Amino acid sequence: LGARGVPMHRRPIQSAAFSVLKAADIPSLLIEVGFLSSARDRARIADPVWRAGFTRSLVTALLAWAVADAAEARLIRQ
Fold this sequence. Notes:
single chain, mainly alpha, 54% helix, globular
C-alpha cells in the first residue's frame, strides 16, 4: 500500500489479541483506513476518488500477498 502512495502508519504491521483475528481459522487481517476523530482522515474517507484509489491499492496488495503465499506454500509442502 505504501508503494502505491497510501499514507501508512510508522509501524504498519502490528499484532493484537482482537477476537476477529484470533478466532479465524484462515489468514486474517484488520485494516484501519483512518480515524473519524481526524478531520484529514474523515475527508479522505468521504472522498469517492480517494476510496477508489485505496480500494485498488488494497486489491493489488492482497493479490501480491496471495501470489507470495501460494509460492511459499509450495515450498513448505516439499
